[in-house]
Amino acid sequence: MDARLVDEAVEAIRAGRPVVLPTDTVYGLCTTPYHSESVLGMYRLKGRDEQQPTALLSSDLELIFECVPELRGRAGRPARALLPGSLTLVLPNPARRFRWLTGSRPETIGVRVPVLEGSARSIVSRVGVVAATSANLAGGPDPRRLDDVPEEIRSGCAVLVGGGELPGTPSTVVDLTGPEPKILREGAVPAADVLDRIGQRV
What we know:
9 strands
């Protein structure tokens, strides 16, 4: 682990600059979630529509709950059953927190608690929570390797953190805001496994 690189990435994220990090699925584009301009800058770098949501990502679910305290009750139970893991959960956001992350559905919010390793784990653990999306241009292939991250994004980031070759399949996205769970995108975790785990533990 490169301690200097970790320090630089932590400083950059806290300052609102974009950073590329390896996750448990694909390379991600991250910044602080606390300032709208930082998130909108990340969107512009990626060429992403501002109406598309972006997830809160942390190495600890409890830190997510600190950001969105309404999740500590019933709404957070399925999150405890499913996370950490290669999932993005769409959860209720009744206070409409982080409006610049929620896109066209401000009453919901996406959360990620991946199993991170090495420098990425150290960086996210120190920062606490980041806004994270895949480090590709909008509609482009998900980057499995750091070299797969488009040059437009690489050149616009403050720090690039390598983590070798990743699985390359994005997280499975599960909407838990309705009466029944809905799989919005089947990815790294099979839909049947998600539904089975929720049924057993919630």
